[in-house]
Amino acid sequence: MPDTRLLSILIPLYNEEEFIGVLLERVLNAPLPEGLSSELIVVDDGSRDSSVAVVEKTAVMYPGRIRLILHEQNRGKGAAIRTAIHHASGEFGIIQDADLEYDPAEYPKLLQPLADGRADAVYGSRFVVAGERRVLYFWHSLANQMLTIMCNMFADVNLTDMETCYKAFRLSLVKSIPLRSDRFGIEPEITIKLAQRQASIFELPISYYGRTYAEGKKIGLKDAIQAFFVILRYGLSRDIYADNGAAILDSLAQTPRFNKWMASTVAPFLGARVLELGAGIGN
């Protein structure tokens, strides 16, 4: 058994030449829970500035620590995250924006519930205040909270910050979920699908240093409207298994009357004891 477990840090990147160098240094030197090591998966989503050159320069300084994957065209944050998940090889993953709004120094508290086996996913909440938080736009905050409430209703969870960047998770679980959103709709999609898979989700307070639009903030009204329809789409469906066999078993699990009929049909042919081996979803 290896001495360390691998964390994949997933970094979607688009036109962040001013911040990406500093961010990578912070991530590379961030503390981790004992027994964890890290790899950085940077997906450049068609940047038109010198972001790629900055990443390449940093990668030379830290051999073997950074993998850079390029999208030829801008496809959106969700597409970049999906690409990063596909290429990640760690036991755990955490999403890290390429700006400086979120502090990698908070990795230990976000990752510890995963490392301990208590959680399948951990969200860092900007609204459960326990550290510094830059005060910014009222309407942006209100839209965020409204989308979180709506997502909670469909997912039957009680998160305070569904839209947070800081989502850490077991990669094997997330890799088994089909993610389809290309833009910021990835946030409610992954949340709803984790909840539908009965994942154990923890939420912890984090600090937040939000940018203004003049400083480069990218999310806007169009993305909020899109997130609304993403919540409706995935909240009213069960597109939660990449494997067809698991999807069939999940569908059968939603038919209690059929299952009772099947049980009563085979019961006369069973002995006093039954040994069940791998009959659950995913086995």
How widely separated are the two ends?
Answer: 23 Å
* β-sheet strand percentage: 15-25%
Count of alpha and pi helical runs: 10
Return the string of H and E elements: EHEHEHEHEHEHHEHHH
Radius of gyration: 21 Å
Strand order of the largest sheet: 3-2-1-4-6-5-7
Instruction: Tally the beta strands.
Output: 7
Relative helix content: 25-40%
* Gross geometry: globular
The CATH superfamily of the largest domain bears the name Spore Coat Polysaccharide Biosynthesis Protein SpsA, Chain A
Low-pLDDT runs of 5+ residues are: none
What is the name of the CATH architecture of the largest domain? Alpha-Beta Complex
Number of domains: 2
Kindly name the structural category. alpha/beta
Largest sheet: 7 strands, mixed
CATH class call of the largest domain:
Alpha Beta
Average residue pLDDT: 90
CATH fold-level name of the largest domain:
Spore Coat Polysaccharide Biosynthesis Protein SpsA, Chain A
Describe the structure.
The structure is a single chain. The chain has about 280 residues and is of the alpha/beta class. It has two domains: about 5-235, Spore Coat Polysaccharide Biosynthesis Protein SpsA, Chain A (Alpha-Beta Complex); about 245-283, no CATH class. About 40% of the residues lie in helices and about 15% in strands. It contains ten helices and seven strands. A seven-stranded mixed beta sheet has the order 3-2-1-4-6-5-7, with helices on both faces. Helix 1 (about 20-30) links the parallel strand 1 and strand 2 (about 35-45). Helix 1 runs parallel beside helix 2, helix 5 (about 140-155) packs parallel to helix 7 and helix 5 runs parallel beside helix 8 (about 220-235). The chain is globular, with a radius of gyration of 21 Å. About 35% of the residues are buried.
